[in-house]
Amino acid sequence: MAESAADLIEHMNLVIDQPPSQPLNPNGTHRTPEELVAKAIAPVKREFLRPPPSRTNQRDTAVSDADAKASKSSVVAKEKKSKRQLKRERRQKSALHLCPEVAKSEDVSSCAYGDKCRFSHDIEAFKAEKPADLEGKCPFTNGDGPCPYGLACRFYGTHEDGAKGNSSNALKKNSEINVLNKDVQKLLWKNKMKFPKADAKLKSLGLMGPGNSRVKKQDDGEVDQNSVNDSHATVASDSADKLECSLEVRTGENADGIITTNEIRPLKRVKSIIEEKCCSGEEANGLSVPEKDLENSCPETELEVMIDDALTETDGSLKIHLREKKLIDFRGKLYLAPLTTVGNLPFRRVCKVLGADVTCGEMAMCTNLLQGQASEWALLRRHSSEDLFGVQICGAYPDTVARTVELIDQECNVDFIDINMGCPIDIVVDKGAGSCLLTKPMRMKRVINAASGTVEKPITVKVRTGYFEGKNRIDSLIEDIGNWGASAVTIHGRSRQQRYSKLADWDYIYHCTRKAPESLQVLGNGDIFSYTGWNKHKSDCPELSSCMIARGALIKPWIFTEIKEQRHWDIRSGERLDILKDYVHFGLEHWGSDTKGVETTRHFLLEWLSYTCRYIPVGLLDVIPQQINWRPPSYYGRDDLETLMASDSAADWIRISEMLLGKVPDGFTFAPKHKSNAYDRAENG
Ligand SMILES: Cc1cc2nc3c(=O)[nH]c(=O)nc-3n(C[C@H](O)[C@H](O)[C@H](O)COP(=O)(O)O)c2cc1C
C-alpha cells in the first residue's frame, strides 16, 4: 500500500519531549535497572538505547509531508472550520460528492430526489476525479450483501462484478445495533417524547410536582438564558472535532434537583444560538469557568455534610425494588473501561478479539441524548461481538438521568447502564455532572434512586475516590450507593483534583470494597498494566468483584490475552501491525469504506497510536513487567517497524496510518485529543 517500514524509518521524525536519558551514577558507573525503576525510568536494555534525538517539535500537531514541504513552518495547526462553513461546503455539488444512492446502485434514477438532490449524479465525472483505489479488500466483501458504498468505496476494484447495492440494504451494518429510530428522534426533536416510567418514579420519590417553571418561555419560543445549565465538550468518536454545547432547560428545581414542573425541553432556536456562540469561541468566556472558580462552584457545603446523616435512610419500596433488579455478575470478568474518543466500537471489537469480557460505550451526555442528537446516540452502538455490554451516561439531575435511562431501556439493547460520577472535565463538572456529584451526596442519591427505580436494567456508577485531593469520600458513601439502587460501583483510585498525577490509591479502593454491602459489586480501577498487576489486586482484596482496565488496554490491548493466559507476551511488531490491521478493517466497516470513512478511520487510528507508542516490548526490558508510569528512554526496536512503533511523533503515527490506509490527503493535519504522553493529564473518569 504505502512505503515499507524500512523505507519509512529513514524519514522517522524525532520525539519532542526529551526522553529521560539514563545518565551515569556520580562514580561513573551505569545506573542499575533497579535504580532506574526507582526513578520511574523504564529499564531498557543497554544495547537498545539510542541517543536522545534532536527535537523537531512535531508531536502535538503533525502535518502531511506534502504540506510540510509546501509550508515553511512545519507545524501549523489548521484552523477548525465553523459548522456553517462545513455545511456550505457539503452543499456544494462537486463531482466527488456523489449521491450515496447513485453510488450504491450505479443507477441515476435510483435517487428519489432527482434534480433536487444536493449531491452530484454525474457518475462519469465522479469516476474521473475519484482517487485511486486503496490496497486491500473491501471490508464488506465477505458480508451478507454488496458493499453499501458501491462506486464510492475506496476498494471498488475488489467488488464482485454486478454486485451492486440498492436502497433495501442501505445501512447494512447489521452486526451493529442500537441505531436511533427516526420517529423517536423526531419526537425528541419536537420535545414530544413521553417518559411515563421515569416520571412516575420521580413523582414517587417526591422529585416531581406541580410548581413554577424557572424557565421563562417567551412568545417566540426563546428561553431565559439563565436557565441554560448544561454544556459539554464532545470529544467522542462519533461526534469528534467539535466543541458542542448542549443545553438543558431546567425546570423549577431546588438545589438538590427536585423538579417542580415537567416542562423540560430546550427549544431548537435557543440551542442554535448557543451553538453559534460555542463555534465562535464565545463559549470560552461564557460557559466554561477557570478551575479556581469551578472548585468554588462545587464546594463541599456544610449543608451537604449535615445531609449526609440522612442518607442512610432508605424507603421500603426501594428495598423491594432492589430485590427485583436483574443481576449482572462482574466477578472475575475483564472489563474494558469506557474511553471517550478512543474507546470507539472498532477499538472495542479489537479488545473483544483479544479477550475482554465486558465492554462499555463512550460517555454520552444525557441532555444530548434527550435532544435526539445523532452523534451522541452513535455512542450507544453495540457490535454483535460485545456480549456483555453497557453504555455510560453523564447527567447532573435525577430527571434528566431517569428519562435517559428509560429512553435507552426502550430503544437500545444493553446489559447495564453506567452513570459517570467521576468525570473531571471542567465543562461537565461546572454543570453539576460527573465528579461534581461527589460533592453533592443528596443529589447523587436522587440520581441513583431515580435511575435505578425507573428501569429493571442494572444501574452501575463510576466514581473517583473524591473530588479534592486528601478528602476521599467514597468510603463514607459506599454503603449508601448500594442501598440507593446501584448494582455495581467502579472506583477509580484517584481524586478529581489529582487527575493522573500519582499512582492510583489501591489501599483506599480495598478499604471501600470491604465496607461495601454484599449486594453491591465493587470494581477497582487504576494503572493495571499486566497480568501480575491484575492478580495482585485480586489476591490482596478478594472482595473485589473485578477490575477495570483503561490506558493499559489502549497501550497494549493484548493485556486481556495476557491476563487470561497468565503470561507476559513478548509480542512482535508484525503481530502488533496485524492488530492495527484488524482495527482498520473494523473501522472501515463502522465508519465506511468511502473516502470519508477512510479518513475517519485514520483519524481514530491516529488517536489510538498516540497511546500504543508507549508500549515497550518485553524483550527490550531488563525488568518486567513494564509499569504504566515509567518514562521510556529513547530506544531502538528489534526491527524497523518496532522502532517506528516506539516513536511518539505524530508524523510517525501518520506514516503508520499510511501503511494501512494509503497516503493522507493534501493538507492533512493531526493533533491528538488526549495528548496521552503527558503523564498527568485529565481524562473522563
Ligand atoms: C482517553 C481516555 C478517555 C476516557 N474516557 C472516559 C469516559 O468516557 N468515561 C469514564 O468513566 N472514564 C473515562 N476515562 C477514565 C478511565 O475509564 C479510567 O477510569 C482511568 O483512565 C483510570 O484507569 P487506568 O489507570 O487503567 O487508565 C478515560 C480515560 C482515558 C485515558
Low-confidence stretches: 70-78, 166-172, 211-235, 239-315, 677-682
Mean pLDDT: 80
| Silhouette | globular
Overall number of strands: 13
What's the helix count? 28
> Measured on Cα atoms, how large is the radius of gyration?
26 Å
Share in helix: 25-40%
Helix/strand class: alpha/beta
Q: Per DSSP, what share of the residues sits in E-state strands of 2 or more residues? A: 5-15%
Distance between the termini: 38 Å
Largest sheet: 9 strands, parallel
Report the bound ligands by name, code or SMILES: flavin mononucleotide
Task: Summarize this structure as a short list of keywords or feature phrases.
single chain; 685 residues; alpha/beta; 9-stranded parallel sheet; two-stranded antiparallel sheet; 28 helices; 13 strands; 35% helix; 7% strand; globular; binds flavin mononucleotide; tRNA processing
